[in-house]
Amino acid sequence: MKLPFSGRAMAAGTVAAAMLLTGGSIAGAAPAPSAAAAPDISVASVKAHLTQLQSIATANGGNRAHGRPGYKASLDHVKAKLDAAGYTTTIQQFTSSGRTGYNLIADWPGGDTTQVVMAGSHLDSVSSGPGINDNGSGSAAVLETALAVSRAGYQPTKHLRFAWWGAEELGLVGSRYYVNNLSATNRAKISGYLNFDMIGSRNAGYFVYDDDPAIEKTFKDYFAGLGVPTEIETEGDGRSDHAPFKSAGVPVGGLFTGASRAKTAAQAAKWGGTAGQAFDRCYHSSCDTTSNINDTALDRNSDAVAHAVWELSA
Fold first, then answer.
1. H or E stretch including 150?
2. 236 Cβ contact partners less than 8 Å away, ≥ 6 residues apart
3. Phi, psi values for residue 177, rounded to 5°
4. What is the helix (H) or strand (E) element at residue 57, kind and residue range?
5. What angle do CA 42, 109, 243 make, to 5 degrees?
6. Which of 116, 253, 281, 300 has its CA 20 to 30 A from that of 181?
7. Which residues are known catalytic residues?
């Protein structure tokens, strides 16, 4: 998640493939019954992706930041997994702060391309650390959900698209570039964009975006089924990659476990953890490593990612 009040970096570049400009979305479609329940997402598998991202950061100066070799190595790692799973992947290139940036888009074959369900996360870290919670956690959960789609041979009614954004930490640069390079017609095809940014905070809260009511209800109902209370997300409002989509009129939603804001006594009473301490005390710091993850929160949120993808694309 980008720092509050950071300047908006200017992005320019070219689209690597025309499909990025012509892809569809799902707005206005009537819900269909689910063909199958979402599979359980293995937290061990999600953590294995985080271990890979940590290794990449360690081998590349301790970070995976925009324009640094660790970012491109992270993108190449995710792309290879998706290519092997049968996705059509596209790299979108842009420029920000004098450095080349990349978005990775993965389309699952089939489904109605006039109704696209998108799930995404930013793949870059800040330069001060490896960014394992921010935002390896969201990136790994979205990746494992995409791989679960492939393993299940899932054939949804709607078209599924997954995205990993570059240069979020510089001001939502990659996601804004993607949205701005969609025609109005193709933006209107996106029925929903789901954003996952920091979903494994050590002192976790369970926050749900209150943007699109149907998407919000999907997440809140899921957590209610687990007996886990949720709150409306406010700390990161407008500070992550859902914001460009929302500004363009796309229905958005997502999950968050908290950043630098301190957990209240009331929140600690219902969620556990430590009152008066930040949800993520390693936010934007060198200690945002694989040790900075709450396994229970990562597990619950990863399952919620898959649940929403299945539910909203059926």
1. helix 138-152
2. 1, 197, 198, 256, 259
3. -60, -45
4. helix 43-59
5. 70
6. 253
7. 168
Contact by Cβ (8 Å): 159, 88: no
Does residue 169 contact residue 3 with C-beta atoms inside 8 Å?
Answer: yes
- Both tokens of 143, joined, read 């990746």
Return the structure tokens found at 248. Answer: 């363009």
Whether this model's pTM surpasses 0.85: yes
Single-letter residue type at 85: A
**Peptide bond connecting 195 to the previous residue in cis, omega within 30 degrees of 0:** no
Residue 149 above 50 pLDDT?
yes
For residue 186, the Cα-to-chain-centroid distance in whole angstroms is 21
Q: What's the pLDDT tens digit per position in 211-249? A: 999 999 999 999 999 999 999 999 988 899 999 999 999
List, in sequence order, every residue forming a beta bridge with 89; answer none if it has no partner: 106
Cβ(126)–Cβ(169) below 8 Å:
yes
Query: Six-digit token pair at 292?
Result: 């900075």
Q: What beta strand segments (E) does 227-289 contain?
A: 231-232, 252-256
